Amino acid sequence: xxxxxxxxxxxxxxxxxxxxxxxxxxxxxxxxxxxxHFQAMSTSATSNAxxxxxxxxxxxxxxxxxxxxxxxxxxxxxxxxxxxxxNGTGTQTFNPKxxxxxxxxxxxxxxxxxxxAYAGISGSGKxxxxxxxxxxxxxxxxxxxxxxxxxxxxINASGPVSLP
Length: 164
Description:
The chain has one helix spanning 2-26, and strands at residues 32-42, 49-56, 60-66, 71-76, 79-85, 89-94, 100-114, 122-134, 137-138, 141-142, 150-163.
């Protein structure tokens, strides 16, 4: 369960940054900057992909593909963005009777590079990650070596974005 949770947190943090990349992709103008708000979500603790919606200065969908070392590649219809994010810090609780897992963490991200419509993009910001999951049971006991039977992950992030 810890490995699944760590992967989920990493994917979630990266997904938050994806939205920042999507802002630039949605724009046909150069020299655009402003504050963007992002929401990412996933219902899978085992997938490294998350759905993201960016809104504010720009509106665009993206898919976050989380890689190693807290670096994600965000894919938009007209380019990609590489994002590095911090490990989340905050609280995590697990109820061994009900198998309920609750995670509330926060961290930061930085847009590192972009291709296509995102070439030259820059930005950084903060994210808030929330996970609510129900762990699997075996013989009436919560087990940590199986994926959760239910998983909800939501990331809300915001920060300044600039596209030359």
